[in-house]
Design brief:
Elements (H helix, E strand, L loop, with lengths): L16 H34 E5 L14 E5 L13 E5 L13 E8 L4 E5 L2 E4 L2 E2 L22 E2 L4 E5 L9 H4 L2 E2 L3 E11 L2 E6 L1
Antiparallel strand pairs: 1-2, 2-11, 3-4, 3-11, 4-9, 5-6, 5-8, 6-7, 9-10, 11-12
Length: 205
């Protein structure tokens, strides 16, 4: 029969196993915390400088974008100097907006005329630099609502500014009401819609 001195606890192991196990646990916990912080930092940088998700609050861009649609906006490697006719852009709330509703937050509209171009409407048709604007993104019948200048006195967009319209022309509050916007107020360009009509719908622009 073994004496008490010969007996050993059932979970005993090599000397130092307990402290080593605690150090490994602490090191693993620290590494995990650092990885989470780095991941959050990367996500924050991507959101701030690369891409940002926006939701559409109104029906001014119907049928292209509906209420509560979600879009992805390119912010990195973006310059308003690269904006073209037909681009959908997000921009800061224009200071001359008197259409009612919230006066803060960003808006989304489509670029119709570029800096230095002339624009006017005739009926439901829009003319930029004297040529009929092709608008394949609109439905067959999309009443313009308030007109834009006239062929005798077209409106010339000032340098560094853009003339914007919503696709739902009859109800959209846009450059017809508050004038062109400065290029510097453009936050980014819509490149993807990933939620449309209350369901996933991935479309690139």
């Amino acid at each position: 029969m073994a004496s008490p001195a010969d007996a050993s606890p059932a979970d005993a192991g090599p000397a130092g196993t307990g402290p080593q196990r605690r150090r490994r646990w602490r090191r693993g916990l620290t590494e995990t915390a650092i990885m989470i912080l780095v991941a959050l930092l990367v996500v924050g940088l991507v959101r701030t400088f690369a891409f940002q998700a926006f939701w559409i609050p109104s029906s001014s861009m119907v049928p292209t974008l509906g209420v509560n649609d979600r879009v992805l906006v390119q912010k990195a490697f973006f310059s308003w100097h690269d904006v073209r006719e037909g681009d959908i852009v997000v921009f800061s709330h224009p200071p001359l907006d008197q259409c009612g509703g919230p006066q803060e937050g960003d808006l989304v509209k489509r670029v119709i005329a570029l800096p230095g171009q002339t624009i006017y409407s005739s009926g439901n048709s829009i003319y930029v630099n004297g040529r009929l604007l092709a608008e394949p993104y609109l439905p067959h019948y999309d009443p313009l609502g308030p007109p834009i200048a006239s062929s005798q006195h077209p409106y010339r967009v000032p340098p560094g500014e853009f003339y914007l319209l919503g696709d739902n022309r009859a109800i959209s509050c846009d450059s017809r009401y508050w004038g062109p916007i400065k290029g510097s107020s453009i936050v980014g360009k819509v490149v993807l819609v990933w939620w449309h009509d209350d369901r996933p719908d991935f479309r690139r622009f």
